[in-house]
Predict the structure of Peptide ABC transporter ATPase.
Amino acid sequence: MSYLELRDIHKSYYLGKEEFPVLKGIDLDFNLGEFVSILGESGGGKSTLMNIIGGLDREFQGSVSVDGHKLDHKNEKALDTYRRDTVGYIYQAYNLISHLRVIDNVLISLDMTTLNKEQREKRALDLLKRVGLGEQAHKYPSQLSGGQKQRVAIARALASDPKIVIADEPTGALDAQNTEEVLQLLNEIAEEGRLVITVTHSQSVADAGTRIVHMENGKIDHDEHLRDPYEVANVERLESRLLPASVAYKTAFKHFKFNFWRNFLIVLGTSIGLFAVILFSGLGNGISGYINKQVNDMVNPQVITVSRYQKKSQGSQQQAAAAQQTGATTATSGTASTKTSFSNKQIKRLEQVAHVKQVDKVYTASSVATKYNGHSATISSLTNWTASDTSNTVKYGSKPGKGEVVIDRDSVAKKISSKHWKSLIGKTIKLSYKTLNKDNKMVTVTFKAKVSGISATSNSAGMVSDNYVGGATLATAMKNANVDTTASSLAVKIDHLDNVKAVTKKINQLKTSQKRVYSATSVQSMISTIQTYVKLATDVLAAIASISLVVSALMIIVTMYMSVSSRTKEIGILRALGQSKRDIRRLFISESLIIGVASAILATAIAFIGQAVTNQLLSSVDNYAFVQISLTNVVTTFVIAVVIALLAAFLPARRAAKLNPIDALAAD
Ligand SMILES: Nc1ncnc2c1ncn2[C@@H]1O[C@H](COP(=O)(O)OP(=O)(O)OP(=O)(O)O)[C@@H](O)[C@H]1O
């Protein structure tokens, strides 16, 4: 039994329906240690036969057996393994990969062996030294002479320690000196116990081997043994393995680096769309946060405003007034009582609701006359300080305690003490207002209070002025004047912000004799309504920006198609070395992924610079970061970039993987 047996090989090419038979029944036996030259007329089918022996061609009749095992040439994976394990190829046109250094060209084949990294690198260098190119390992193929390139190709063919080395006109492009050296190497290779099959037109090349096979008219017409094959020693051979995914990533990265500027421009183009998406999302976060802060600075978000639930037609005015005072809105629909104030029992009931910490009655006095040192001013609206009020509204001094008052700077303090308005803090002022008492008679409610603080909201943001009396001061004065002190509005403090929503809902659901009593609204619900609109607006902006991502995707698709077209030959070489369709697909997908991830990194970097610049520019509006890019924004950008890259790579990578290795190798 011979090592390699060809039996009754027939092969035809077809032009339309017309058949062109090339191989018409080839039977050949080869043994290890032989250096066989195939001679024959041009166009006689020598290369076709080599492609069949080399496991590149699957469309033929007949059988090829290696080491006693019939090759299943219909099984593509089996052929991939056969090429990877058993065959090394040397071509007339060298077929080196131009964007890889000499050593990397050799390593491609070694990556499919079980050697570790150091061993692979050592073997690659040893092989290059053996062919006299130890010094040239880090050059690119374009920096080598023809003879040197062919020697790199020989080193690569030997890298995976193949038993069969096929050389298709290995000296066709070389001068006499280089031809001599290459033949010497081929003889050494056969001497190592490998089978060397070379295709040649040159009798002198053929004479250098151990055997000459001549083809004529698609058949073997002559088979001449020149000398005995070399002795085959039983040496241990290298084992092959599937190409690890990491190698595809590394190779893709090398190609990315090799075409750095072209790829950089694509990355830049892609990152612009991603940058816009990330920046607009960050702007959305910032503005939402800003609204939240602005409102929460004025009203405690942990407090719910509760008023009597009214039918729309009846109490909407009182409700609107209550809402305005606390900055909240109220829902009014359905049936309810016409009363507008709460009984003590109703207040107690609220106090018993889970998570409620405190219930304050809210009193409001309108047109309050203020007197100090002979000067007077009118407070349009004065309320008692409740849990819903926050110290943020008190700009100077502190919040009002019992018997104290906070007055607005511009509309009150400056009017009663123009120059020394700040020194009003600690001074006692007189306050009075007119209202109806319980007997429906107009009375004047009068009281004194010490100024504990001054607010300054009347001029900014168009807010009404903030004036507050602390403790029960206002209620006591009202009682003294026989004015009704039942409250129409309650400030209900909740133990934790997280419970506000649930408690608001709960209070709204409370019923007395089947009737709804309470109408509760939280400032949080108002903020979230505004934030919904802000989010909608910034989402629309981000969506518009994402249109440019479609352009980015198209750009990557075009680049990948270009990459596949310009690398057709490389695909053929890699397939001939034993890489599978999956390896080729992975190579192009990883290249696209590198572009996608690099774009996301660049977009994130530009977005953070954009964030810093925008926030700096807007710092004159308010000392607040209006752009706030979150980790979620960054992660989303990376996910988008990866998805785009994968989608863009899908078709080109599929096309690359589907290329017929023989056609790919024949590409210019
Ligand atoms: N893909 C193909 N489609 C159609 N015909 C083909 C194809 N490849 C080769 N042929 C034809 O098959 C015949 C054999 O080609 P092959 O390349 O095997 O010959 P060869 O003996 O190696 O020639 P040369 O010595 O000139 O390289 C030629 O006539 C060629 O035109």
Summary: The chain has a mean pLDDT of 85.
